[in-house]
Amino acid sequence: MSKKRKLKAEIPSDISDKVEETLKPFMLSMKKLREISSRFTKEMDNGLDKKKHQKAAVKMLPTFVRAKPDGSERGDFLALDLGGTNFRVLHIRVEDKKILKVDSQICAIPQEIMQGTGHELFDHLAKCLGEFLESQKLKEQKLPLGFTFSFPCEQTEIDKSILIRWTKGFSCSGVEGKDVVQLLKDAIHKRGDYDISSVVMVNDTVATMMSCNQQEHEDPDCEIGMIIGTGTNACYMEDMKNVKRCEETEGQMCINTEWGGFGDKSPLSDPGALDDILTDFDKEVDETSINPGVHIFEKMISGMYLGEIVRLVLVELTNNNLLFEGKVTVRLDTKHTFETKHMSFIEGARVDQEVIDTIQDLLKVRCSEDDARVVSLVCDTISSRSAHLCAAALAAIANRIRLNKAKDNLKTAVGVDGTVYKKHPNFRHKLEDAVAFLAPECDLKFYISEDGSGKGAAMVTAVAQRQPHSRLMNGNGEEDR
């Protein structure tokens, strides 16, 4: 008997039936998931199309990474990983598809620099990079550098990326709308005490995929990268003939799907592709977020929002006298008090006194054993929907790769990162089982990424040294310069 069935059997039937009625909109049939997978395929087509791209909900951004590691990559590479209040500098040695050496240093970014000028930020990055090169006795070498810059950007070439907007507490002036690669190069050249041979812009999802291509495991090669943590995204290797925004038609390019936008309303998707499965709880999460109407798919499946969906369901059940003696405490009624990590703990444990105490301490409620079972059932239902929706989109990507290869059956691998996948006790298994059901012709192996933003960035940089460079075409079919 599954844990969900066991929980239902142990909850008094008069309560269980009413709880299930509240949870029913979260329970998606495999038929509905196949339908959602087909919708995602259509959104992918829109994003890849030269004329429809601007209006597409799923942007399908070219990354200008044209190949996976083939074993010929060797040499020394630098990586700079900026995505928060700290950043990392790494020196990585690659040989025969393996990373033989990794040295790294973590540098802090003071608040005054995070909110200062762009020149101050990039001067700080260049200073810390110089100090690291000095400590590694590398200042006299001109090495290529992979730059993982985890902020919203429009990438137009492998070495050109325009910052759209700052997030994560950064507000440096004079950077939005500018090429961050050029700003880094300018700061390095201004110092004059060291130089780098080239800078490659690296998306974190692409780095996740690449890091799994250099890990020691049997074939197949990794052709998909996926992050399912606080946020979510995926990338995959697409045939160039389908990337209508680039003029080349031979070979492949890695596409950053930006699948978090699946379900957003757009001129091509109105109503949104997920409107028919949005619950009232999803709508409330979206309406009270900092970006209403944006990244609907991400709000249904990622770690930043799952706990809040659970909390809203618990409030509804309590208001209906099905939980906690019908008493909604201030704590239970406060946004974001219930987090995804709490779901992971509750779902991974037997309903015992420790779980009851955890719920009571967290929400300041009186929690009975039956209440704890209901909370566990709610958590299981919400995380299951997340895994199943993720599987629907992933199945669409896998089937696309299979059709591109004109194969009846496909064997490929997915490189994965993110706390939901790695730390939730059941998510991984539910995801993999659902993908196998939704894409039976695709045999997917899943590998957890080892330091994608560091090692993966170095592998992207290594591959870029031997690949032809591509550029986006503008609306007239000409290359952007």
Structure in words:
- It holds the Pfam family Hexokinase_2.
- Residues 19-213 form the Hexokinase N-terminal domain.
- It is an enzyme of class 2 (transferase).
- Its EC number is 2.7.1.-.
- Pathway: Carbohydrate metabolism; hexose metabolism; Carbohydrate degradation; glycolysis; D-glyceraldehyde 3-phosphate and glycerone phosphate from D-glucose: step 1/4.
- There is one protein chain.
- With 481 residues, the protein is α/β, with parallel strands linked by helices.
- It folds into 2 domains: 1-61 and 218-449, Hexokinase, domain 1; 75-202, Nucleotidyltransferase, domain 5.
- 41% of the residues lie in helices and 19% in strands.
- The strands form 3 sheets. The chain has a 6-stranded mixed β-sheet with strand order 1-11-10-9-12-13, sandwiched between helices. Strands 4-3-2-5-8 form a 5-stranded mixed β-sheet.
- A hairpin with a 3-residue loop joins strand 2 (75-82) and strand 3.
- Helix 10 packs antiparallel against helix 13.
- The longest helix is centred in the last third of the chain and has 36 residues, at 369-404.
- It is globular.
- It starts with a helix and ends in a 17-residue tail after the last helix.
- Residues 475-481 have low confidence and may be disordered.
Helicity level: 40-55%
Distance between the termini: 61 Å
Q: Would you identify the regions where 5 or more consecutive residues have pLDDT less than 50? A: 475-481
CATH topology of the largest domain: Hexokinase, domain 1
What topology, given as strand order, has the largest sheet? 1-11-10-9-12-13
What is the CATH domain class of the largest domain?
Alpha Beta
Q: If classified by CATH, what would the architecture of the largest domain be? A: 3-Layer(aba) Sandwich
N to C succession of SSEs:
HHHEEEEHHEEEHEHEEEHHHHHHEHHEH
Provide mean pLDDT, rounded: 90
Number of H/I helices: 16
Count of beta strands: 13
Shape field: globular
Largest sheet data: 6 strands, mixed
- Rounded to an integer in angstroms, the radius of gyration calculated over CA atoms is 24 Å
GO molecular function: ATP binding; D-glucose binding; fructokinase activity; glucokinase activity
Enzyme class: transferase
Pathway: Carbohydrate metabolism; hexose metabolism; Carbohydrate degradation; glycolysis; D-glyceraldehyde 3-phosphate and glycerone phosphate from D-glucose: step 1/4
GO biological process, one term: intracellular glucose homeostasis
